[in-house]
# Entry
Amino acid sequence: MHSLRSWHSARVSRILMVIAAFMAAFVPWAPPPCAAAEDIDEAIQKANLYIEVARMTERARDSWERYASWVNMKAGPTGKERYISYGMYEVYDVSGPLTEARGAARLKPDTPALDAVMASYIEAYDAVAPVLNEANQYYERKAYEADGMAEGKALHARMVPLADAFLAKREAMLQELRPFMREVEGREVAAIEAKEGRSRTWHAANVLHAANRVIDTFPKTRPKQIDSDTLDEMMQSLGPNSSGEEFDQIIAGVVPPQGVVIDMTRFDPAMDNFAEAVETFDQFAAQKPEELEDLKDKPQALLAALRELQKPLQQNQGKDFEGSGPLVNQVVQAYFDMLNDGNSLAQSQLRFLE
# Structure
């Protein structure tokens, strides 16, 4: 089973990665009937600090994947690579936000597991980032032409274990962060209702939250980067009988995750919850359509697209199936259409993490 965006990208844009990295655990959660504003504010502050860490350190992952796109990771660089000019990306200085995030553990609510994994992730990032930048400067200067790739080989040996540790820590961090984000989002929806009832803002926020809980059940494993040597071999092996998936992989430059399955024991309840939210939203929209502007038809469109996907998923026990691409494309399009029109109405203070 491909992830949500890798399904979409392989058949539509061909070059996008997955909708984010990694699987987010779905934890059924009922928001309290009334939440203190200061508690919500502190929870949002904590979530946003951690979200910014995840977003601002993503550049290190992108730099490593850029490197992996042209070098043979097992053998290391030789200086004769066809795409050596790709080099790497500069990793920006984010020491300020990281310092601020280190103090987030004191904020409520208490999240000891998330705090611990975030601290470990920041430590792994601090270790790998300067080495990535050192390598980036080396390839920008084309210093390998003068030293016969001596330093490049040494940098490769240093980077591989650091990058592997960083990526593993990032996966662990996101597995803890995404459920926390959704919990805070649910508390934010409850706080809106406590403050102003089931207003336009609440209806928009509630249906977006329910949609996000469905999307969270999709696997978020990133595809594996194909190095240039392997890519050349794949291109040379193409023939009239090559499958569309082979062409997709070459164009995207990645190998889709294998054996990934959607957990239907999570997906189906999330769908039921979203359907209830859409019904409530539609009732409000029928009474006050002018208040919802362009959003009013979007939740129903997403629900319809998800239901079309749900049927074959149930038949295949969450596994990928023939013809999944167009259905997933419809879900992706409908989801982002709803986000684009709904975010301003929902007025969430949470930052977005793809």
Notes: DSSP finds 13 helices and two strands in the chain. The first strand starts at residue 224 and ends at 225.
